[in-house]
Amino acid sequence: MSAAILLGDLAQVWADDIVSKVCQSALAPDAQRRVHRVWADIRNEVLGGQYLDIVAEASAAESIESAMNVATLKTACYTVSRPLQLGTAAAADRSDVAAIFEHFGADLGVAFQLRDDVLGVFGDPAVTGKPSGDDLKSGKRTVLVAEAVELADRSDPLAAKLLRTSIGTRLTDAQVRELRTVIEAVGARAAAESRIAALTQRALATLASAPINATAKAGLSELAMMAANRSA
Q1: Whether the model pTM is above 0.85
Q2: What are the residue ranges spanned by the domains of the chain?
Q3: Which CATH number is correct for 2-229, 1.10.10.10, 3.40.1190.20, 3.30.360.10, 1.10.600.10?
Q4: What is the pLDDT of residues 198-224, one digit of tens each?
Q5: Which of 96, 123, 41 has its CA nearest to residue 211?
């Protein structure tokens, strides 16, 4: 534990050093300040999201809201919103573009994570490169799992009990298949697909209003569709 904490601290210091050196060598002072502000947001959000993820897994949290918060902080901000804002900050003082990228990235990033949740349960290991039902075995508290438990509570108490007592344990392949069947039967997979579609469409609508050139807009739209509809 102590070694892991020290290595994490060291990695953060190295990351800060890299950002500072790149800024100093390539950017004007005003751009450096803008980039450092975004970098501080990235660092705080990803560490906060990781902490919430660890707490949720340790406490077997079932809240959809909690899982969505983790997806927003740990994935959406780190993977989409803030990287786009880093590029904007380095290029120009455009708070209007940065604000649009924040909303676009938040929706697309959560859609990306929800797709990852679906693939973590239903994905083909030969395509995803992950073991079958890996999220179920590890006890990862995803939006998909939280929604499955909530829906099962309403419609099938026995299914809800099975989910609560099985997720995060040493599961056989047969047990993984049974949990998949339950998650799909209570409507959680369909709900996840609906969320992904709605978030992606909202992200694309936000992007359409961005005052950026058509080539950049088309490229980001293509990336958005790939992220939301990927199979691995």
Answers
A1: yes
A2: 2-229
A3: 1.10.600.10
A4: 999 999 999 999 999 999 999 999 999
A5: 96
